[in-house]
Design goal:
Elements lengths: L2 H12 L3 H4 L11 H20 L7 H12 L6 H25 L4 H17 L3 H20 L6 H19 L9 H19 L3 H22 L7 H25 L6 H14 L15 H17 L16 H14 L1 H23 L6 H10 L7 H25 L7 H17 L1 H20 L4 H22 L10 H19 L7 H22 L4 H7 L3 H21 L8 H20 L15 H15 L19
Helix pairs in contact: 3-4, 3-8, 3-18, 4-5, 4-8, 5-6, 5-7, 5-8, 6-7, 6-15, 7-16, 9-10, 9-11, 9-12, 10-11, 10-22, 11-13, 11-24, 12-13, 13-24, 15-16, 15-20, 16-20, 17-19, 17-20, 18-19, 21-22, 21-24, 21-25, 22-24, 24-26, 25-26
Main location: membrane
Keywords: Cell membrane, Membrane, Transmembrane, Transmembrane helix
Pfam family, one: FUSC_2
Length: 651
């Protein structure tokens, strides 16, 4: 393994504890002002309307609806954003109605919260929209049971829904004038990442490109799946994404020949990115090609230039697999009821919410609904380690309550509170992109100020909030984390085996130029690798006694990525003059990878692969041999006795 990967592994094991650095999503390269401004406007406008009407409290529920809906916005196509934000807003309104109707009924209220927890956990298995809906359903149910408002619950739920619609309108304000802005921006980001790849083909640049490409496919295809009939422009965008993948593979092939890409091709890709962003069309290419890798690179770049310049799109350039609603619902149903992780999470969440609800009935805490609220937020499964979130939530709330106390001491009750409310609301999207603790540090004073508008509790609210939050974190750690050893680490082993199987399936069809589905299989392989990296990143945020075992998977992950890259590069060469491999040699590769996947699932040491000796597949065979050695612990950089195939419990 190269020194680059050894240094990366060292940084992971020797850096600060994961529970201090766990990110909710990848940190942005620069501060993005648009979502911050949109959040501030969404939260404060209902309060300003209430202030103009003479009762600022009237704007509280619409403000909360706008905040909950805006926090669910994860970008992407307009269709995807509508589904996600609408799910969160509707579920939040239903949750508040449920909580308000069951408030004040003693232990029946606790049972109602537990029942909602079950529904929330099942919804959370249904992808992004289900996850957002499940969280808001549970959170607003808890708030509905804890915050009494004068009047019937129905109009209050409608006020919350009105705020959600306001946030949705702000997010979609550019849609009429720029209906494809999100898809175009995603494709531009892919070509910018590809431009950087010409100068740096290290693992960091490759991962950045693969991440951008996956986001591009998700964004464009989610919009395209809703289009009625053929949409030529979106089809062109998908073709451009396919072309960028071909260029990436050709670059890897050229790197394996120890050659640098020509400067005019790098400039052409940069011109393609500029043209997609509204600049002039790129210049035509003229370049001599003296090797299969260089011919593949030139062909890929030329194809992108022609697509941007209005060239024809081949029918096989669009790997799109429509999925019917019945198939989606059936897959969702099976995932909800038959997934082991879903069942375990449902039990954990229901148990902790039940205990938090019981604590509230004993009257030990002044505003005990905050205890249940903390449990709901910390046990949300999508954002990584439960341990990290609990610790970060406590630390972030401590910092946030101190800030909130200062604000409540210095800012008089009334309209002046809208200024710090707007500031903290604007900072929440930034905190969410950084880490759970920073988001909590901005959320805590915002919630304090909103509650103070309703109750006029003053600085004492900060102390109450801190105590209740710490109690919720303790419940999560004692009942939702420590008794469940399987939750201490993400399932890296099974995901690794899935990625190996996906790679084998891709190789089975990769060298058949007449196979229309091989582009889709290649994308699925890199999707599986991206999922593996996500699970790995979640696992390394656990306490060091757990995470140091997880980090030993990194050499095997790197070896598997080398297999995928070597395959893609070899395919690029065979399409541009290199001799294709024999079916027997390809079959031996596939069998070896499937055996490695089966051995990892069974906890066995993988056997030595039997590979055909063909010059075309030399680099792929070498990568598969390196993968087997790394997984079995025989590779010199594989981490010693904690090798993946030794049955040491790392699965």
């Amino acid at each position: 393994m190269s020194p680059v990967f050894r240094r990366a592994a060292g940084r992971l094991t020797d850096a600060a504890p994961g529970w201090l650095v766990e990110t909710v999503r990848p940190a942005p390269a620069a501060l993005r002002w648009e979502p911050m401004l949109r959040m501030a406007v969404a939260v404060t406008t209902p309060l300003l309307v209430g202030l103009a009407a003479g009762q600022i409290v009237l704007g509280l529920l619409p403000s909360m609806g706008a905040m909950s809906t805006a926090m669910a916005d994860r970008g992407g196509s307009y269709r995807a954003r509508i589904i996600l934000m609408s799910s969160a807003g509707s579920a939040g309104a239903l949750g508040y109605l449920t909580g308000a109707l069951t408030r004040g009924h003693g232990w029946w209220t606790v049972l109602a919260v537990v029942a909602v927890s079950l529904v929330s956990a099942l919804l959370s298995t249904g992808g992004g929209a289900g996850s957002a809906a499940g969280l808001q359903l549970l959170v607003m149910t808890v708030l509905g049971t804890g915050i009494p408002l004068p009047g019937p619950p129905g109009p209050h739920a409608l006020m919350f829904l009105l705020g959600a619609l306001w946030a949705l309108a702000l997010a979609l304000v550019h849609w009429p004038a720029h209906p494809r802005a999100a898809e175009e921006a995603a494709v531009v980001a892919v070509y910018h990442a590809l431009t950087r790849l010409f100068a740096d083909r290290g693992p960091g640049a490759l991962t950045a490109f693969d991440t951008a490409l996956r986001n591009g496919y998700d964004t464009v295809l989610s919009a395209r799946s809703a289009a009625a009939g053929t949409d030529a422009e979106r089809t062109r965008l998908v073709a451009l994404l396919n072309q960028s993948s071909l260029i990436r593979n050709a670059l890897i092939s050229l790197c394996q020949e120890e050659r640098e890409p020509p400067g005019d091709l790098a400039a052409a890709v940069e011109e393609v990115a500029g043209s997609l962003a509204g600049g002039p069309e790129p210049h035509a290419l003229r370049h001599a090609c003296d090797s299969p890798a260089l011919r593949a690179l030139h062909s890929g770049v030329r194809g992108a230039v022609e697509l941007v310049s209005g060239g024809d799109i081949a029918a096989d350039q669009v790997p799109y697999e429509p999925v019917g609603y019945r198939r989606r619902l059936r897959a969702l149903w099976e995932k909800m009821w038959y997934g082991h992780l879903a069942r375990v999470y449902t039990v954990r969440l229901s148990l902790c919410m039940g205990v938090a609800g019981a604590v509230s009935e004993f009257g030990w805490f002044e505003r005990s609904y905050w205890v249940m609220l903390t449990v709901a937020l910390v046990l949300k499964p999508d954002f990584g380690s439960v341990f990290a979130r609990a610790v970060q939530r406590a630390l972030g709330t401590l910092a946030g309550t101190l800030i909130g106390t200062v604000v409540l001491l210095t800012v008089p009750y009334g309209p002046a509170l809208l200024i710090p409310i707007a500031v903290f609301a604007a900072l929440m999207p930034y905190g969410l992109q950084r880490n759970w603790g920073l988001m909590s540090a901005f959320q805590a004073p915002l919630v304090l100020l909103l509650v103070d508008l309703l109750t006029r509790g003053g600085p004492m609210l900060a102390e109450v909030r801190l105590v209740d939050t710490l109690a919720g974190c303790v419940i999560v750690l004692l009942l939702g984390y420590l008794p469940w050893p399987a939750s201490w680490e993400a399932p890296v082993g099974p995901r690794f085996a899935d990625a190996v199987s996906a790679t084998a399936h891709y190789i089975r069809h990769a060298f058949d130029p007449d196979d229309p589905g091989r582009a889709l299989l290649r994308r699925r392989t890199y999707d599986a690798l991206a999922d593996l990296r996500t699970v790995f990143q979640r696992a390394v945020t656990e306490p060091r006694v757990v995470s140091r075992r997880i980090t030993t998977w990194m050499p095997a992950m790197t070896a598997l990525e080398q297999v995928a890259d070597a395959t893609a590069a070899t395919v690029a060469r065979t399409e541009h003059g290199a001799p294709p491999p024999s079916d027997a040699a390809v079959g031996a590769l596939v069998t070896s990878l499937e055996d490695i996947a089966a051995d990892v699932r069974a906890g066995r040491t993988p056997r030595k692969p039997e590979l055909a000796d063909e010059e075309t597949l030399e680099r792929v065979n070498s990568a598969v041999q390196g993968l087997r050695d790394t997984v079995s612990g025989e590779h010199p950089d594989a981490g010693g006795g904690d090798g993946a195939g030794t049955g040491d419990g790392r699965r």
